[in-house]
Amino acid sequence: MKFVDELNISVSGGKGGNGCMSFRREKFLPNGGPDGGNGGRGGDVLLAATANLQTLADFEGRRRFLAGNGGHGSGNARNGKSGETIVLNVPCGTIIYDAETGEGLADLVEPGDSYLAAMGGRGGRGNRVFASSLRRAPRFSEKGETGEERLLRLELKLIADIGLVGLPNAGKSSILAAVSGASPKIAEYPFTTLSPNLGVLMTDEESVVMADIPGLIEGASGDKGLGLAFLRHIERTRLLLHVMDVSSGDADIIAEDFRVVRSEMCQYDPELNTRPCVVIYNKIDMCEDRKSLEDVLSHVSSVTGLEFLMVSALSGENIQSLIKKVILFAREHPRPRGDVRLFASVEETSGTAMVRRRRRVEIVSLPGGGFRVLHPQMEKAAERYDLSQDENVARFARLLRKHRVEELLAAAGATAGSSVTIGRVEFDFHPDIDFDALPSDDETG
Ligand SMILES: Nc1nc2c(ncn2[C@@H]2O[C@H](COP(=O)(O)OP(=O)(O)OP(=O)(O)O)[C@@H](O)[C@H]2O)c(=O)[nH]1
Ligand SMILES: [Mg+2]
How many CB atoms lie within 10 A of CB 281? Predict the structure, then answer.
C-alpha cells in the first residue's frame, strides 16, 4: 500500500435536530399543554489512533467527513434521535494541526488515544421545555445548531523505539527482517525501501518496535534521494542503529560512510546525533580476513567513539546479541507514557474543544455598507431561534439588548435600515425598537 504521511482533511459535526412546537390534541381535551420534543444532538467526528495502521493512505480517497444529523423533535414529547458519531482511525503517531492557523491540536500516540475533531450541533429545544407556571403555552421552539466545521492537517511521525539508519543497500531491511517478524522488501540494489517499515521484536515481557527507513545519501538534506523526508519517522525513537556495509574491509570507505550519514542526520536535526546510537557493522560474512577486518573496525570505532557490533544479517552471526542489546536498552529506557506528546494531553485537548468561551461583541463594517456582529453565543442563537416564530424574534431581540448590540452598531456607524448580519441571519437595523413593549420573557439564551 502507498505510504502517505501528510494530508489535509475537513471534518464537520452533524447538525442538531430542530425542536418541535406542538400542543397535545386529544378528544375532550381541547387545550392540551405544549408537547413539542427536543431535537437530537448532531454526531461528532473523532480521530482515534490504532496500532493496525502505519500510514494515512486510507484518507487518500476521501478527504471530507460529515457526522450524522440529529433527528427533529416531534409532538407527543418525542425527542429526535442523536446523529451518528463517526470515528476515523489513524496510525499511532498522528499529529493533528488546525490547517488554517497551524496550531497543534493533538498528538495521538498510544492505541486508543482519541481527539474530538468536530463537535456535533446541539439539538433545538421543543416548546414543552419552555412551559412554566407563568407561561403555559409557549408558542416557540428552537432550531438545531450546525456542527463544528474544521480543516485539519494530519502529519504522521511514526512511533518506534528503535530506528535503523544508513546508506542505501547497507542491509537495514535485512537487519529488520532478521530480528523481528517483519518481512520488508530486500534487494541487491539501492533504494529498495521506498517508505518506512515497522517491525516488532517480541519477548515474553515486552515488545520493541523498530523502524526501517529508506537509505540516506550525501545531499539528502538538500532533497537528494528519499531519505530526508523519512527522517521524521525516526525522530521519536530512543535508540538508533547505524547500519554499515563493511564488506569492503577498507577503513576509509567505512569512515566515509559513517560521516555521510551522520552529517545528513545533523542537517535534518542536530539532536539526532546526540541520540544513543549503536553502529552495526553488517555483512561480515563477506570478509575472508576476519582479523584484519576487526582491526579496521576497531580503528574506525575509536574515531567515532560509538559502541559497535559486528553482524551478518545473512548468516545470522551475532544477530542474537543484537536482539539482546536492543531489548536490554528498551527495558532500561522505557518510554514514559505521554513523553512524546507535543501538546496538552488528549483529554484536555478534547476538553478545550467543548469549552464555549465568552467573547466580547465585535462589530465589523462590511465593504458593501452593512455590518457583521461577531460573538459566538449570539451567532449560535441566531441559528437556533426559529425566527419565523414571533416569540423567537422577541427572544432574539432581548439577547441583542443584553449584549448592547444596538449601541455598538450605532457607535460603529449603523443607521436605520443598515443591513446587519449575525451568523447566518441578516436583518435591517431598527434602532428604535421598544423592547419593553415585547412580551415578557426571561429566556435570553
Ligand atoms: N552477504 C551479505 N549480504 C547482505 C547482508 N545483509 C544484507 N545483504 C544484502 O544486501 C542487499 C541490500 O540489503 P537491504 O536489506 O535491502 O539493504 P537496505 O539498507 O535496506 O537498502 P535500501 O532499502 O535500499 O536502503 C541485499 O541484496 C541483501 O541480501 C549480509 O549480512 N551479508
Ligand atoms: Mg531497505
Answer: 26
The CATH code of the domain at 362-437 is: 3.30.300.350
Residues ≥6 apart with Cβ < 8 Å to 426: 370, 419, 420
Does the C-beta of 191 come closer than 6 Å to ligand 1?
yes
Residue extent(s) of CATH 2.70.210.12 domains in the chain: 6-157
Furthest-apart CA pair in the chain: how many Å? 108
Q: Is 170 in the pocket of ligand 1 (CB under 6 A)?
A: yes
CB count in 10 Å sphere of residue 8: 12
What are φ and ψ of residue 154, in 5° steps? -105, 135
> Residue 167 C-alpha to ligand 1 middle, in angstroms?
10
pLDDT computed for residue 132 by the predictor: 84
- The ligand that comes nearest to the alpha carbon of residue 165 is 1
Distance (Å) from CA 253 to ligand 2 centroid: 20
Of the options 3.40.50.2020, 3.50.50.60, 3.30.200.20, 2.70.210.12, the CATH number for the domain spanning 6-157? 2.70.210.12
Q: Tell me, what's the pLDDT at 134? A: 82
Nearest CA to ligand 1 atom 16: 186
Residue 282: CB within 6 Å of ligand 1? yes
What are 131-158's pLDDT values in tens digits? 888 888 899 999 999 999 999 999 999 9
pLDDT digits (tens, 9 = 90+) for 227-280: 567 888 999 899 999 999 999 999 999 999 999 999 989 988 999 999 999 999
Determine the CATH number of domain 162-332: 3.40.50.300
